[in-house]
From TrEMBL:
Residues annotated as binding Mg(2+) 2: D220, E221
Function recorded in the entry: Catalyzes the transfer of the phosphoribosyl group of 5-phosphorylribose-1-pyrophosphate (PRPP) to anthranilate to yield N-(5'-phosphoribosyl)-anthranilate (PRA).
Domain Glycosyl transferase family 3 N-terminal residues, every copy: 9-60
Binding site for anthranilate 1: G75, N106
Positions that bind 5-phospho-alpha-D-ribose 1-diphosphate: 75, 78-79, 83, 85-88, 103-111, 115
Protein name: Anthranilate phosphoribosyltransferase
Biological processes per GO annotation: L-tryptophan biosynthetic process
Organism taxonomic ancestry: Bacteria, Pseudomonadati, Pseudomonadota, Alphaproteobacteria, Sphingomonadales
Native species: Qipengyuania marisflavi
Amino acid sequence: MKQLPQAEPHLTESEAEEVFGWILDGQTSEEEIARFLTEMSSRSETAEEIAGAARALRARLVPVAAPDDAVDCCGTGGDGHHTLNVSTAVSLVVAACGVPVAKHGNRAASSKSGAADTLEALGLDMEAAGRTAEKSLTEIGICFLFAKNHHPAMGRIQPIRQRLGVRTIFNLMGPLSNPAGVQSQLIGIARPAYVPIYAAAKAKLGTKRTFIVSGDEGLDELSLAGGNELADVTGNDFEMRRVHAVQVNLPHAPVEAIRGGDAVHNARALEALLMGAPGPYRDAVLFNAAATLIVAGHTQEWEDGAAKAAEALDSGAARDLLAKWIAIAK
């Protein structure tokens, strides 16, 4: 068995790719993995380490064919706020706007309900959704790429993450390893000060356009509560800016206003949203959907993006899309 290095000194990008190759290939013990992940998380991962680890995961994934303009919207998780599933709802809304969405996600690792848990509670058969991913993406413009189906090397890692119950570098690797190879993304991370580091990692891997965002209170998505850090990554470079809900004509609301619960609770809230329920959950979805539509090239303006997202909800298009998706995944 391989002996993992100490968390200090920092690894180079090539060293990180090699070390995470050992981890993913089962060449080191679970105890070593838990120790290494905990130490690395406590001193914060570098852009080089994140990029190298993501390359190792990408090299071992099971790919899926997708349109060139497909996008993804996800958060890294681990923010401790246990909010409703915003990115899952955003995926439905954006797809209903006509942008193909290859939603990459998993079950909860450090939260109460991950994307897979909530979608399953809504009636989407996860196994069938995996088998029909390319079909649903082609026919209705959305699919769910269940991480366990596309990252078999993660099989032994997930129980370790669940036992640790805290954010690790694997939260950061997932969004950078979409099996559809999407080139446009909205990625939320749980640490606002870390946005430029994560953006630098994304820039090392390259992208058509990606927004890396974090709410000031540590929310792993665009927040209504206050300001947000945003890194606009294009190609192999990025620039930083600030964004607030008021810029999108949306009201501020505390994080508690979108506090979630277990999968059933979150699924019921998402159903209500799709039926036209107003409030902070809807506003948070419109905010993040606007950002996703911008990186997709579907609009250039925040207000226009939010208006398109609102129309997808109010017309019933997002609700109908979910019904079609459930019907295909049988």
